[in-house]
Amino acid sequence: MNTIPSTFNDSLPAYTVVGGAKRNASTGLCAALLNRGGRYARNSYFKELQNSGFDYVLSLEGSGDHFDIEELSAAFPFIRFILFKDAPNIGEQINVAAAESDGPLFFALWNDFHPVLSLDAERIAGRLLLKTPEAPAGMNKPQGIRLCTVPVLQNQQFETLPSASAPVINGKNFETVPFVPVKEGEPSLYPFDAAGVYDRARFIDLGGFDPKIKPPRWQLLDFGLRAWLWGEEIRGTQQIRFKLDGAINAENSTADDNYLRFFLKNLAPVIQSVNTGRKPPKNAILETRPAHLPLRYLPAYLSAANCGLPAAIRNFIDIRGWVDANSRRFVHNINEISAFWDYFEQGNQPKDGIEAPCRRRVFSFAL
Known about the structure:
Structural class: alpha/beta
Strand content: 15-25%
Largest sheet: 9 strands, mixed
CATH class of the largest domain: Alpha Beta
Low-confidence stretches: 134-139, 274-287, 348-367
Distance between the termini: 25 Å
Number of strands: 11
Order of helices and strands: EEHEHEHEEHEEEEHHEHHHH
Number of helices: 10
């Protein structure tokens, strides 16, 4: 059985939609509300989102009891309640939000997030949508300035959490270092807690979150690193701040089969460049050979995988085929991504879309 969906919609879990026939506004930004669990004042929270001016709200309800959906749907006709048949992971829920939204941007946030600054959907969309010339209807759809823009998160004492992350290459080890975001447009390796304003078209083109990776740690890292490797960007903004009701759960970093899947898709592929010995011009696209997943990783992967030999062989072949199918989308390798963060931390502020100031080169990681 193929473990990597061939299209975005192939990855979506079973769900139904209730309500949401009316639009609240026309800013180009909707809210995708994730449920952390526990009780919260749904009526007041929905009113807050309504007053913030979101076009509509996608309330991702999980698979529990939905006794109040009919009443809430009547009271808030701009809310689409997404009812899942089973219990999906976080990435699957956000994938459904992307499929169900019909505007250029959607904002994934949690029901225990409370805005520190005034949350204005029209202002957010105005900042994050590209300004393009007028064009005939259907010929020039709005597009975001980047794949994902992440907010600043604070605890109940209004202390900023280390919600941004940077990649570090330590010998043959790949590591991530969390840090407190302090600059506008600061890059982050992945959206912490999956919260952020996503460009819908870019998100779907990237393939969204991998539903086969269950722990949020590896699922988010797979999404974020794939984005940077494929030339997309995830950056923070100081203009959107939330205070959290409680503490964020510690991330599970166990190097299990979920980690191995992340590794094979992102760190193991080899990207070689044609080195002419000359420094490329600014923003030039280097001539590259397609990325590929070397067979030398197979013995170590089979030894480390816990899914059984036949399943492990199928998984490796499937991921190798996925790398081949997307080989020319790997426009950066991990060395270049790491060097980009070093460049940024030295006080440089590259504009959106600028390439990292280093050549691509092959880097071998140990499994």
